[in-house]
Amino acid sequence: MNSQSCVNIEKEWDIVSARQLGRNLARKLGFGTVDQARIATAISELARNIYLYAGSGEIYFDIVEDHPKKGIRIRAIDQGQGIEDIGKVMKDGYSTSGGLGAGLPGVKRLMDEFHISSVPGAGTEVEVVKWLR
Amino acid sequence: MNKKLQGLVLKNSDEIIRLWLRKVDQNHKKKLGQVAEVSDELFEGTNREFANVIFSMVENKGSTEELKTFSERLIQLGWPLSYLTDGMQVFRNVTVDYLLNQTEIVTKEDCIEVLHMVDDWIDPIIHHLVNEYSGNWENIVSLQKVALQELSAPLIPVVQGITIMPLIGTIDTERAKLIMENLLHGVTKHNAEVVLMDITGVPVVDTMVAHHIIQAAEAVRLIGATCILVGIRPEIAQTIVNLGINLERFPTKSSLKKGFEAALELTGRRIIDMDGSGDKIEELLETLSKE
Ligand SMILES: Nc1ncnc2c1ncn2[C@@H]1O[C@H](COP(=O)(O)OP(=O)(O)OP(=O)(O)O)[C@@H](O)[C@H]1O
Ligand SMILES: [Mg+2]
């Protein structure tokens, strides 16, 4: 189960495939219902951001081990327009698309670890981890 | 086209059909059995018919009527396209083999021509069959799309003034729009004072879904009715809180049952026991809510 899986995000329904894959992986790892829902929701947010702002990209899934901890890692990578001001997009309520602007700050709260890096004009990468407890 | 070769095939059609049937018989029956109920008679009869259709295509090139009727019937029977395409491949192999083995009549120079000629027979038939089948599939898909749309945001008037919209399955942007439209249309049409939006069956409530729900509830409020969000499963409640989404602007209830009671109250009504054993209605409501 250590192999990495990936879902390409191009169409809106790819978001559903990504979160189904993530949820199944989380279930197999032993995450409870609430954490499964958190993980699926986080994937949904990241995938939708790719779909909306970058046009296309990939979501990678793998299992991380940091003895004795075990967890699921999700990376959302795109080569889209990138983000100018990370501080701004991490604030609740900031949206350039008329959305709630709750996606990225929400993902940070849903997951245990959250890293975002972006190069304007070159793309964005968000990496999140949820540890099994 | 080479008349000599065509004549040879037509003259020996019985032999070619025999060879073809023998080959088709073995592997195809088993495959077919997985998708459709097929009796031996039906299978053999259809194979013969198929062979005849192929030969009549070879004989009078261009007439596709027979082929059309035949493929339509197979579509009706639910036989897979692979039965036909595999059958055509077998026909190709058998015919080519047969012709190349007639060494007294078919010379070395004819070889290439044999291959071309057989391709010329077979390819249009396969092309036609694939078109018939895919046309049928497209038709089915578009019908199912309509059916899905009808199912995707249903509105059920339960009692005077109270309407329920049960949502099951993933909500994408297209469906979110439909929910809004149906909600507003239905509230007006049924004169609803309260709409219960039940999200028990929605697997993931992310910011997009939440945003649409909030907008829909807001729109319902603007036309003078109340939207109550019901069926919020515990894990969904947790993720909504984590996302930092505020649903306090309109009423929410954990179950359809509680929502219905609240709706009755809002419309100035209440469930009363007629004979002291009022559990009946409780039970009824219990089955209504999918908790
Ligand atoms: N992958 C990305 N590429 C480029 N810009 C992005 C990307 N992801 C987010 N953004 C920018 O960050 C902003 C905030 O994102 P966030 O997901 O928090 O909110 P939102 O998508 O606008 O609304 P929602 O609450 O529906 O998610 C977006 O409006 C967008 O401008
Ligand atoms: Mg977002």
TrEMBL record, chain A:
Keywords associated with the record: Kinase, Transferase
Classification via SUPFAM superfamilies: ATPase domain of HSP90 chaperone/DNA topoisomerase II/histidine kinase
Claim: Kinase is one of the keywords in the record: yes
InterPro entries referenced in this protein's UniProt entry, alphabetically: HATPase_C_sf (IPR036890), HATPase_dom (IPR003594)
Histidine kinase/HSP90-like ATPase domain boundaries: 35-128
Molecular function via GO: kinase activity
Protein name: Serine/threonine-protein kinase RsbT
Organism: Melghiribacillus thermohalophilus
Lineage: Bacteria, Bacillati, Bacillota, Bacilli, Bacillales
From TrEMBL, chain B:
Keywords: Phosphoprotein
Gene Ontology MF: a single term: heme binding
Domain of life the protein comes from: Bacteria
Listed PROSITE patterns: STAS
Statement: the UniProt record of this protein carries the keyword Phosphoprotein: yes
SUPFAM superfamilies with a match to the protein in the record: SpoIIaa-like (SSF52091)
Residue ranges of domain STAS in the record: 152-263
InterPro entries: Bact_StressResp_Reg, Globin/Proto, RsbRA_N, STAS_dom, STAS_dom_sf
Name listed for the protein in its UniProt record: RsbT co-antagonist protein RsbR
Organism: Melghiribacillus thermohalophilus
